[in-house]
Amino acid sequence: MISDRSDHGTPRVGQVKEVTSLTNPIIKDIRALAQKKHRDETRSFMAEGLKLVIDALDLGWKIKTLVYAKAAKGKPQVEQVAARAVAKGGLVLEVSEKVISTITRRDNPQMVVGIFEQRYQPLKDIRPKDGETYVALDRVRDPGNLGTIIRTADAAGASGVILIGETTDPFSLETVRATMGSVFAMPVARASVEEFIRWQKSVDVQVVATHLSGSVDYRTIDYRSKPVVLLMGNEQAGLPVELAREAGALARIPQSGRADSLNLAMATGIMLFEARRHLLSLDAR
């Protein structure tokens, strides 16, 4: 069932809907966001946790629906974020723990969930400036890797992430979870291989690619002369020839152990912090 309710806090009468049924159409629509097709059709995605919802609102993301569990009712921060959601034109739902567990597919769910409008940065609008670093990912498949890279790019002070080709969805629940909220702070762009190559030729950047046949130690590269684009290959196949040949430097991370490769997110983190080492300081925050 669904009904209006009122209380002595904010938002007021008629602004909060109480939902108790898993078959409610609104809940069914939210649950369908687990499917990429539905996320793409509605241009929506889910983020869990009060802090993430607050951060998203602070950064200007459009909220469509705010969902909170009955157990969170009356908490000042929840009431405040509900009022902000209403002010932004969002729907606010108060639900049972069973409903929110079903939405998030967790036994111990967060008490607050936000449904937001997806946002991509057009590649043509990215004009890198001195001191900026971008990460370009070719056909990244694993949502955990992508989420971790977005989070790491945020931590390193990168300016954006560019997804090349058929990649995993940056707005899947698994990816958003792995970003720990950085999905709201890190601009993400999409491009085909051809679009990326045209773009990188139109801007004055240094493209550094990691490659198994790379002959340059990543620590010896001068990352100061131009804005940097770190080009990272697919988890299994690495970079295709058409991308590798566009790089100004093919870099390699030296290894001495028995492992023959690094996890994509780990390798990207190593490259990012080396590329930005001259820009980072211990008192940056």
TrEMBL record:
Record keyword Ubl conjugation present: no
A Pfam family it matches: SpoU_methylase
PANTHER family reported in the protein's UniProt record: RRNA METHYLTRANSFERASE 3, RRNA METHYLTRANSFERASE 3, MITOCHONDRIAL
Name of the protein described by the UniProt record: RNA methyltransferase
Coiled coil: none
Family note: Belongs to the class IV-like SAM-binding methyltransferase superfamily. RNA methyltransferase TrmH family.
Gene Ontology CC: cytoplasm
The entry's keywords: Methyltransferase, Transferase
Species of origin: Rhizobium fredii
Superkingdom, taxonomy of origin: Bacteria
SMART domains on file: SpoU_sub_bind
GO BP annotations, alphabetical order: methylation; RNA processing
Ranges for domain RNA 2-O ribose methyltransferase substrate binding: 46-122
MF term (GO), any: RNA binding
Listed InterPro entries: Alpha/beta_knot_MTases, MRM3-like_sub_bind, Ribosomal_eL30-like_sf, rRNA_Methyltransferase, SpoU_MeTrfase, SpoU_subst-bd, tRNA_m1G_MTases_N
